[in-house]
Design brief:
Elements: H1 2-14, E1 17-22, H2 28-43, E2 47-52, E3 84-88, H3 100-105, E4 108-113, E5 124-127, H4 134-144, H5 151-164, H6 175-185, H7 191-199, H8 204-215, E6 218-220, E7 225-230, H9 232-238, H10 248-252, E8 260-266, E9 272-278, H11 284-289, E10 294-295, E11 299-304, H12 308-319
Parallel strand pairs: 1-2, 1-3, 3-4, 4-5, 7-8
Antiparallel strand pairs: 6-7, 8-9, 9-11, 10-11
Helix pairs in contact: 1-4, 2-4, 2-5, 4-5, 5-6, 5-7
Length: about 325
């Protein structure tokens, strides 16, 4: 790994322009890692451009709180064949969405990720499943470049660190994780305001939609599963953007009666995105991989082309250890 970090640092030290991308429907670790590294490179007089492959290109409500968000452009404005491309928090090529072809054409691809399901993509792969977050790996890369993060960089990386560790409560948190958080907090950014925007900044419409999801909660003891769902009609009626509902899974997972929690959310194309969380008894990365998805042992996801009822039945079968066709 040290050799890969050294190679990546050398490439970035000599680059004049760098394109940075993360997975579709980005969370704060994905965007925080991209913008944190983008800010650092800009401070070194490197031109950067950042994006993610969603169409329409809707920024999460909290994105504006991350310094450097003005570097984000729609995928149509992203370089077609960059000399240097950095991907952050992206477990597979298809997770780049509309930007996957750009990753294929780019001359040098620095792939930074901490998902165990990652196949080691990129010309330079910075992959460490033991890391708490991709933000942690970006910090390691910055230090390999011989630098320390500025306040703007630290704010972005802290956002990724605090969210991907569930506010430092998940299994991946190590002593090194907390030491990194302390080091980032030494820099002058408003961590309290940032946490408020990330966790305590919902609309009344979102809270009503949350009520709908909670009312639909279903317990499946034979599969050790608790789940709920949202449709496109629910989103349209509530006026809530899809990206605003990503935190719903964290409410569902608090049910003590099941090890696995699932949020099944219909996408604009009719398919269902399945977000999974485990209390520790199930390897969800393996379950998700069986359906073409991936992630971590206790937090994974995939997209289903089946209807709602069949999607749930297939998930239940997989959790029971029964063979299921992809």
């Amino acid at each position: 790994m040290s050799d890969a970090f050294a190679r990546a640092a050398e490439v970035l030290a000599t680059a004049r322009r760098v394109a940075l991308a993360c997975h579709v429907n980005p969370d704060a670790d994905a965007l925080g890692s991209v913008l944190g590294l983008s800010n650092h490179l800009r401070e070194r007089s490197v031109e950067t451009v950042c994006s993610f492959g969603n169409d329409p290109f809707d920024l999460p409500r909290w994105a504006a709180a991350l310094p450097g968000s003005e570097a984000l452009v729609p995928p149509g404005e992203f370089p077609r064949d960059p000399a240097v491309l950095v991907t952050c928090d992206t477990a597979s090529l298809d997770r780049l969405g509309m930007l996957a072809a750009t990753a294929v054409r780019a001359r040098e691809v620095i792939w930074i990720d901490h998902h165990a399901s990652n196949d080691g993509l990129g010309t330079i792969s910075l992959l460490d499943p033991r890391a708490s977050s991709t933000a942690e790996l970006v910090y390691r890369l910055i230090r390999t470049m011989g630098d320390r993060p500025s306040a703007d960089v630290a704010a972005c990386l802290y956002a990724g660190l605090v969210t991907d560790t569930g506010r430092f409560q998940y299994e991946a948190v190590r002593p090194e994780t907390l030491r990194l958080a302390a080091e980032l907090r030494e820099l002058p950014f408003d961590h309290a305001r940032l946490a408020q925007i990330l966790y305590e900044d919902h609309s009344a419409a979102y809270l009503r939609l949350l009520g709908t999801a909670v009312q639909r909660l279903a317990l499946e003891p034979d599969a050790d599963l608790v789940w709920t769902y949202l449709t496109q009609a629910d989103l349209a009626e509530s006026g809530v953007q899809p990206s605003e509902t990503d935190d719903l899974i964290d409410v569902v997972r608090t049910a003590r009666e099941a090890d696995v929690a699932a949020l099944v959310k219909q996408q604009r194309d009719g398919r269902f995105k399945v977000s999974l969380r485990s209390r520790g008894a199930h390897d969800l990365a393996t379950v998700a991989a069986g359906f073409g998805g991936g992630g971590h042992r206790l937090a994974s996801g995939y997209t289903s082309t089946h209807g709602l009822a069949e999607t749930v039945e297939r998930l239940k079968a997989a959790l029971r250890g029964e063979p299921v066709e992809p």
